[in-house]
Specification:
Layout lengths: L2 H26 L3 E5 L3 H8 L7 H10 L2 H4 L5 E2 L6 H4 L26 E2 L3 E10 L5 E7 L20 E4 L3 E2 L2 E9 L5 E11 L5 E10 L28 E2 L4 E4 L2 E5 L3 E2 L9 E6 L26 E4 L2 E5 L14 E6 L1
Parallel strand pairs: 3-10
Antiparallel strand pairs: 1-4, 2-10, 4-8, 5-6, 5-9, 7-8, 9-10, 11-14, 12-13, 13-15, 16-17, 17-18
Helix pairs in contact: 2-3
Length: 334
């Protein structure tokens, strides 16, 4: 073979190898999980992989280590191709049958749960780290569901809603529908299948929810010696708070037991009253946004006060100081 031909062949094989490597990396890219109502794996990630706050998340780490929490966005099957029911065994729906995530198949009644309305308009939010065309299909457990028994396919009602190519903004798919849960009460589980249409790959989430009575029992309320100053950041309805977050609201300090957003302290069991405190004065001038808190989660559009300026988040952020990270846009002094 001539020297020129050998050179062309070598270059061609190198190009193929590079293309294959790029394809492999693309296929291995993680993709997302349910944000509201929060999925088990994403809740545990928000609590902190090294030191989760709730017993189920601590048990998940004991079972599978911390890596599944860091990889919260890749509970998936590469070749599902619409055949999820035949591929995922009963008792392993939340892990999609993937041994790495078996800690999230735990059958227990104390998984952190989102309080859900039974009817009316509701927006499901799916945190996505990579966008894909496809459909999101939602299922809920049947009446009589027992969370202390392994979840089976037969425990699910027929799909109550399906979205195809929903809008994506600031890294979150939003899907709004009217809820058909008038006959539900107590603990249930919402199961979601995100089946890609540009690939046979599918992703799976388990979100624990509560309708009316039957939610997690809050820890005993702490007594307050009184007279202290409210040092925790003010609660804001648009902020996301992982388990362990502390806020001040209406002259009290409150601690979140699990992930929450939009649930006012004192009106939802997720918040535990830590005692009364004396509210501090509001930010000077026209600073009306809540003071930035490094432990709070902010989504795109959230506004905070920091260094006598108002700042607006362009996308999801936590721990990024306004003025020092590109996620924050300075809206002017206040």
């Amino acid at each position: 073979m001539g020297r020129w031909r050998r050179g062309v062949l070598a270059a061609t094989m190198s190009a193929v190898a590079i293309a294959f490597a790029v394809l492999t990396v693309t296929q291995a890219h993680a993709h997302g999980s349910m944000q509201n109502p929060v999925s088990r794996v994403y809740e545990c990630f928000l609590e902190g992989p090294e030191h989760p706050q709730t017993a189920p998340c601590q048990a998940a780490v004991a079972i599978g280590g911390t890596q599944p929490l860091y990889d919260w966005n890749e509970i998936h099957l590469l070749n599902a191709n619409g055949q999820s029911r035949s591929l995922i065994p009963d008792g392993k729906l939340c892990s999609a049958g993937v041994d790495k995530y078996k800690g999230f198949d735990q059958a227990r009644a104390d998984w952190p749960a989102t309080n859900m309305p039974k009817s009316g308009s509701f927006t499901f939010q799916y945190k996505a780290t990579a966008p894909h065309r496809g459909s999101f299909e939602f299922f809920i457990t049947k009446n009589g569901y027992d969370p202390t028994k392994p979840l089976k396919w037969s425990d699910l009602d027929p799909s109550f809603v399906k979205f195809t190519d929903p809008p994506l903004a600031n890294g979150v798919y939003t899907m709004t529908t009217n809820l058909p849960f008038s006959g539900k009460t107590g603990r249930h589980l919402i199961y979601t299948i995100w089946q890609r249409s540009d690939s046979p790959e599918a992703f799976y989430t388990c979100s624990d929810v509560v309708f009316g009575p039957g939610g997690p029992s809050p820890s005993p309320t702490k007594s307050s010696p009184g007279g202290g100053t409210c040092t925790a950041p003010a609660w804001a309805t648009t902020n996301q708070y992982p388990g362990g977050s502390v806020v001040s609201y209406q002259g009290h300090t409150w601690k979140a037991q699990w992930w929450t957003q939009g649930e006012a302290p004192g009106s939802a069991p997720v918040w535990v009253d830590q005692g009364s405190c004396t509210p501090t004065t509001k930010p000077p001038g026209s600073c009306t946004a809540p003071v930035w808190d490094p432990t709070s989660i902010y989504t795109g559009g959230s506004q905070v006060t920091y260094a006598v300026h108002t700042w607006q988040a362009q996308w999801w952020t936590q721990g990024d100081t306004p003025g020092m990270a590109a996620v924050w846009v300075d809206k002017g002094s206040c």
